[in-house]
């Protein structure tokens, strides 16, 4: 049956190959065996039950927690001519009865229900006469009290499951810690069933945490480089949503608010405007987004801290579902942490214990200096296999100029010592800058030897230094009062035995494309922008005529391929990602006509040869191109200039080329280093001693005397030399 599944994948959905684990899960389901599937948002969970639903004779039930999610999925399935319905309170009595009648006549392959609807006696009676082949539980983490979206009704689903003894049970979720996974298996009695665990790494998401400093300005700066892009901004409170919405509207942004204080009608309308590309930005509380399957969300910004890592992961998961590069920015301040702590303190018992643990894990993620994917994936029980991801602020910050901050650190630490380690960074900054603030004078801190010795820096810089010293473990922060206290490491700095190096300014919130080449394909880099915009406009017209979201017709990735390959006939169009036979018949004529006209008017040649043997170009092909060109004699600097990227990107591609089993010429690598031969030998000796994989260890072993950009070159040199 898996051959039939592959045919459905290609003919109906327009995809050439399955994503990781999809084929394994579908095989399991087609063999009538239960399964638990943990797959990240955007990983393709839906196809794991939609394809079997097409191949089974009977009905597939999908339990889903949100009306908007059901509606969205059913709209998409109808575009593929798949008979799917939902039963929920959004239907009029006439529509509800019509769907029930279709179900009774056997005209339906897929039925979407909320758990509350499924538990109703009349629903169970209705389904008792149906042949149910597949019982699917989406968002299965709602079963667990340890999950972030616990729904008591979900815990009763096992009782209903006994109504369908011959049905395969498939439970799916994107966010489940090991503890939640075990909870799901216990409650649904899936103990002997297979668990399919995909990686939690969403490679196309750029993760950044920035110190919150004038957040409205930071937001405006962030949006300035993202004109016309679709995005979500999350705020802690309704009041904050409204205030930010007003500010953004005033600046001319296409934006709407979303929170529980708005009427149900207004919320639904604003969500619909966003889904249908009538507005670009939604400013929302966490109430927004669980039912959103919009693939072209290009950014998710957290104006305030989320409550826990699961919420954060689920919310950033709304970005980049189409696999294209998307940005996730979180503005962080200690006052946000105190707000969350305040609400935790109102809880009791087990609920409080769970919330405290969630906050502690979140703080580890926010305050880490290592690759952000490491603590994020560790939380979900997965070990990130690489030293660095190249797609988070920490991995990129090591390429910035590392400053020697020893003198300022000694001033800061001395001031903490003279104020008896009882005050926070703001007060220390005031003392160092000679402030006449009431608190400074009342405590007699204007009489200290450290008073007014720090005027070379603004107050904000001293505060940033305080945060950096906490991150680097020179200081700890008292959780209750916020006072800064010494660690053993701090004494070595004060005594002049250790220097402090670091990147002070983490407040830049504009994540520029120039920082690193992070796009995943030649298509994404080089599609024709003008044609793409014309195709988008036509797609929007068609969607509005049908009353559906534009992405239901074709996602942006499909339009990008059309604007790259310029298909000229039906055969060419069927080779495009996301164009199956059903959609080709529905929309092919219109889009082909536009593409032909555009090509004729602009004298554009179709890439027909590459289209007929089309494979999606991945970063893998980029590393092969660079590796081969490098071995043929091109320098690293030349490759960086030719591809329009930084040297660090070329180094990363060459490293991948090497790790794939290829050789690299070492003399070309050495030429990229500006270190003296003596210093290069010193680095090589350290790498012999501690290994070359963990650059942070090498950096510290060299007393921070060699910057990370040079260490990357030497790491590649070391790996290339030791391969031979």
Automatic annotation (TrEMBL):
Superkingdom, according to UniProt? Bacteria
Tell me yes or no: is Transferase among this UniProt entry's keywords. no
What CDD domains does the database record attribute to this sequence?
DEXHc_RecQ, SF2_C_RecQ
Provide the Helicase ATP-binding domain boundaries: 26-194
UniProt cross-references to SUPFAM superfamilies, sorted A to Z: HRDC-like (SSF47819), P-loop containing nucleoside triphosphate hydrolases (SSF52540), Winged helix' DNA-binding domain (SSF46785)
Listed PROSITE patterns:
HELICASE_ATP_BIND_1, HELICASE_CTER, HRDC
Report domain HRDC positions: 525-605
Question: What keywords tag this UniProt record?
Answer: ATP-binding, DNA damage, DNA recombination, DNA repair, DNA-binding, Helicase, Hydrolase, Isomerase, Metal-binding, Nucleotide-binding, Zinc
- State the Gene Ontology terms under molecular function: 3'-5' DNA helicase activity; ATP binding; DNA binding; four-way junction helicase activity; hydrolase activity; metal ion binding
Q: Enumerate the cofactors the protein uses.
A: Mg(2+); Zn(2+)
List its EC numbers.
5.6.2.4
Catalysed reactions listed for this entry:
Couples ATP hydrolysis with the unwinding of duplex DNA by translocating in the 3'-5' direction
- Ranges for domain Helicase C-terminal: 215-363
Q: Which family does it belong to?
A: Belongs to the helicase family. RecQ subfamily.
What is the name attached to this protein's record?
DNA helicase RecQ
The species this protein belongs to is Fodinibius sediminis
